[in-house]
Design brief:
31% helix, alpha/beta, two-stranded parallel sheet, nine-stranded mixed sheet, Rossmann fold, 11 helices, globular, 324 residues
């Protein structure tokens, strides 16, 4: 039987978490103002929930009566993973059978994605954990990154392929929202993927604390993905591989999902420099942020609801996917 927040705070019972939703930042309040990464999740699942404070976590945890919990972990590798560890080790929760949705906004290369896309990760890869040097200090055109030995077990994580099949199946009929501003902005790019309407994609999510940008570093991200025998790099973000390391040490990674919405391209269009793209003139931003953060929840909630509605099966582990 699911215990109440009041009961959990007495430590007599632990909240049995079925699905934990992790966002990285919220712009203001959890409801009623401009939505960041958590607000739509909060409005869908936690409006009647009381905050549960966890020592060492960035923000309170919220849980509903169905066993769905969520929190804002903080941005970047250290902040997000520190929060995740504090929450998973807290005596207030039972994560022994939990599924995790790592959710947030991201960037995408224009050759593979567009503003408003929602992407499920097949791999999580750390952009760092290696050696880098300036291009002029090596042969022209040579890669400027090499992995550092000793990080083989933490630099990449392949997510559960069976769970990924379920994610793609459950979200295939979701109609993604778009904006006029994003639609116009896409036309600045010649790539077919960049100019299309938002879609659900799948591939490697590349985690880096540095906001890497420009065609050169985008190419390097793809090089790293190939070097690690992962799928094509499709999303740039700042947290997932670090959170996966924490979960791998505490509860395992078989039930982790990474879900990201693209709100920017990882490089400028052919008519602007990288620095110009990083510092756009008024009115020259991509647009589509509000629609993208809503798209993330439209997609992710399909999986969350399905797991909860079929918990008698899913609590035992990810069932083998069979096309319905």
């Amino acid at each position: 039987m699911f215990c109440s927040n009041a009961q959990a705070e007495t430590y007599q019972d632990k909240i049995k978490v079925k699905v934990f939703i992790a966002a990285m930042f919220e712009i203001g309040e959890n409801s009623g103002d401009k939505a960041g990464e958590f607000q739509h999740w909060y409005n869908q699942y936690f409006t009647d929930s009381k905050p549960i404070k966890v020592k060492g976590a960035h923000s309170p945890v919220y849980c509903n009566s169905e066993g769905v919990c969520g929190s804002v972990l903080g941005m970047g590798k250290v902040g997000s993973s520190a929060s995740m560890q504090a929450i998973t080790l807290s005596p207030k929760f039972d994560f022994s059978k939990s599924y995790f949705v790592l959710s947030g906004v991201a960037g995408t290369p224009p050759s593979k994605g567009t503003i408003g896309d929602v992407s499920w990760a097949s791999w999580l890869v750390d952009y760092d954990l290696g050696h880098r040097w300036k291009a002029e200090e090596d042969e022209k055109g040579a890669p400027t990154f090499t992995p550092r030995k000793g990080y083989e077990d933490i630099r990449r994580y392949q997510l559960n392929s069976e769970l990924l099949k379920w994610n793609l199946h459950l979200s295939q009929s979701v109609a993604l929202k778009d904006s006029k501003e994003a639609s116009a902005y896409r036309m600045k790019y010649p790539d077919a993927a960049a100019r299309r309407s938002p879609a659900i994609t799948v591939g490697t999510h590349m985690t880096g604390d540095t906001f890497f940008h420009g065609p050169g570093l985008s190419k390097q991200a793809q090089y790293i993905a190939e070097l690690y025998n992962a799928d094509d790099y499709i999303i740039t973000e700042m947290e997932a591989a670090a959170i996966a390391q924490v979960l791998n040490r505490t509860v395992g990674i078989e039930r982790i999902m990474s879900l990201r919405g693209a709100v920017n391209f990882d490089q400028g269009n052919p008519n602007e420099t990288t620095l110009q793209h990083l510092d756009p003139a008024p009115g020259e931003t991509a647009g589509g942020f509000a629609e993208t953060v809503e798209n993330i929840v439209l997609v992710g909630s399909k999986t969350v609801d399905y797991i909860v509605d079929n918990w008698d099966v899913w609590e035992k582990g990810v069932p083998k996917f069979k096309e319905e």
